[in-house]
Design goal:
With 194 residues, this protein is mainly α. It has one domain: Hypothetical protein af1432 (Orthogonal Bundle), CATH 1.10.3210.10. It is built from eleven helices and no strands. Helix 2 crosses helix 8, helix 6 runs antiparallel to helix 7 and helix 8 packs antiparallel against helix 9. The radius of gyration is 17 Å and the shape is globular. The termini are far apart. 27% of the residues are buried.
């Protein structure tokens, strides 16, 4: 039975930010879409303003699938995942194994189309930096949303995520934070005013 797509549809049941109290829960499906939109924007910014020549559509697709193995592994909270090099390596091996298992759920003639989305390819290496940056911007947006809801628990995560994003030294990401992230602080009626 080919259950690849039905299994991926269960990403909506994987909760993120499990170690923190959430005013607004977020699931893996929501996060993946957010990352795809943000990643596309980052690559477009890179291409239009910083002389890039990268494929924004490919970047968005990689971002859409970037957490797919978590449908099998679950979402390991960042403080746990990065607690030690040994734990990070073990989780990386679990993710790689989950990707292989997911691919086996596809008919053989479709596997080659999805393998490059689940198993990083060398030619996509420049795009993966943008996926990582989009993932961090998505986390920043979540932190802002929680802070706006009166949840102070995300303040430290917001500071740490912003510092990690700045450390990436990506002009497109810095531009997005300066130009577009402030709108995440606004209510919808102010956003629509332009």
């Amino acid at each position: 039975m080919a259950s690849f797509f039905s299994l991926l549809s269960r990403m909506k049941y994987i909760s993120r930010w499990a170690l923190m109290r959430n005013a607004q829960p977020e699931n893996l499906s929501e996060h993946s879409l957010d990352c795809a939109l943000l990643c596309h924007a980052l690559v477009v910014l890179q291409n239009k303003r910083f002389g890039g020549e990268l494929n924004a559509e490919r970047a968005a697709l990689l971002a859409l699938f970037h957490d797919a193995p978590e449908v099998l592994t679950g979402d390991l909270p960042t403080p746990v995942k990065y607690h030690s090099a040994a734990l990070r390596a073990s989780y990386g091996a679990a993710e790689a194994s989950a990707c292989k298992a997911l691919l086996q759920l596809l008919p053989p003639d479709l596997r080659s189309a999805y393998a490059p989305l689940l198993e990083p390819q060398e030619e996509d290496a420049p795009l993966w930096r943008f996926v990582k940056a989009a993932d961090k911007i998505s986390a920043l947006a979540k932190c802002i949303e929680e802070r706006k809801a009166g949840n102070g628990e995300f303040r430290a995560a917001e500071r740490a995520t912003l510092a990690a994003l700045k450390a990436m030294q990506m002009p497109a990401a810095d531009c997005f934070v300066r130009e577009f992230l402030p709108a995440y602080e606004q209510p919808i009626d102010v956003m629509l005013e332009g």
